[in-house]
Amino acid sequence: MAWRPTEARPPTLLYLSVLDSVEHPRLRHRQAHSLVPGYRVVLAAAAHHPTSAPPDGLELRPLPPVGHRSWRRIVRTFELIALLRHERPAAAHLHSIELLLPALLLRPRGCRLVYDRHEDYPRNIGYGTHWPRWLRRPLAALVGRYERWAARRLDGVIYAEREFAGRLPARRSAVVENRYCGRIEAGQPHEKIPPRTPPLLLVSGTIAEEWGLLRSLELWRLWNTQEMARLAVVGRCRDAGLARQARELACSWGLADRLLWEAPPEGVPFERIEAAIEACSLGLALYVLSPARNDRLPSKFYEFMAWRKPLLFTEHPPWTALNDQWQFGVSLPDGPPTAAQVARLVAQHRAGFPACHPQPIPASVWHWQSQGEVLRQFYAELLSRENSPLQEKMMKDLNK
């Protein structure tokens, strides 16, 4: 139920992110859109490209993008805090770890603060190759203490992964996973599409070496020794050197005309990624296993469940257990693919991957709908502590 102009003004929820885009799927298309029926939602984040028109109740505050290592990142933090003080929302949803301290120090009176812990930053730092080895352990420990200190003073924490739950001493918390949120509705399972010729392999989302790009390129090369295959890379690649290496490898193999590269540093809209999933024959998720992400379930898994497309992923106990239950893909051992493995994949493709998606997977497994309900309930309970008539009405409307 949407709020009407004749009614009392709904509470404002302010979403803040230093680096991410206003088109970020978790921020806008999952969380903000889910909360619009009961709130005035304001989303302040970077605008890398023109944005689509938001629904009634969602207001965008697009800001010039800033780089990870730019001094403008510090400035952006305080620009967002200035917006927080100007808007004076009922609650601020902090999507960036650097916002915690200034928001706690400078928040307006009565504003609730919620931290969206969509990454395990201490673990990312501790096992991240982009940090000097001597710095990783002390920096990870410092960031962990900072998060725990802030969590004790925040009003709530939202975890993006079930395995993250309980890691911070939060007063109130909820797990809101990055389930699929796109064109396929929960009650309308997609038909399984027969194999296409020539096959189109797809690497989508975050494009990085640790997310399996080089392994995917090698698999594609081996596939072309069996039969012609195209490869689409669609998403976001912030590593210019890696993008150049991928193109150079394709040229050296004589496959440049079979590579579709659509992964600029600022990324592409989710609608483009979804169209690529719809068109592909096989998704590639050949992640390099690391303790930094061993307990994560990539959102790509949910996307391929929704479209009933086969997904090739790295063997990892939680992922293979999920696949054993729902049969959405094929696993390969952690490491570069071999010619024998690829030959078996080619045969499976020709047969239409009969072991993948024999039946539609229940929407409760992959669709965002259930997570949106968790999010709405979290905010309704958080703000109902005001015990105002407006909050009581909001609770009733959201529970209808």
Main beta sheet strand tally, sense and closure: 7 strands, parallel
Estimate the strand proportion.
15-25%
Strand order of the largest sheet: 3-2-1-4-5-6-7
Shape summary: globular
- Total helix count? 14
Radius of gyration: 22 Å
Order of helices and strands: EHEEHEHEHHEEEHEHEHEHEHEHHHH
Mean pLDDT: 90
Layout of SSEs?
Elements: E1 12-21, H1 25-35, E2 40-46, E3 58-63, H2 72-87, E4 91-94, H3 100-106, E5 112-117, H4 121-127, H5 133-151, E6 156-159, E7 173-175, E8 200-206, H6 213-226, E9 230-236, H7 240-252, E10 259-262, H8 270-279, E11 282-285, H9 299-307, E12 311-314, H10 317-326, E13 329-332, H11 339-350, H12 363-366, H13 369-384, H14 389-398
Parallel strand pairs: 1-2, 1-4, 2-3, 4-5, 5-6, 6-7, 8-9, 8-11, 9-10, 11-12, 12-13
Question: Quick gist of this model?
Answer:
By secondary structure, the protein is α/β, with parallel strands linked by helices.
Notable characteristics:
alpha/beta, six-stranded parallel sheet, single chain, 400 residues, disordered C terminus
Report on the architecture of this protein.
The protein starts with 11 loop residues before the first strand and ends with a helix. With 400 residues, the protein is of the alpha/beta class. 38% of the residues are buried. The protein has 14 helices and 13 strands. Helix 1 links the parallel strand 1 and strand 2. Strands 3-2-1-4-5-6-7 form a 7-stranded parallel beta sheet, with helices on both faces. The N terminus and C terminus are likely disordered. Helix content is 40%, strand content 18%.
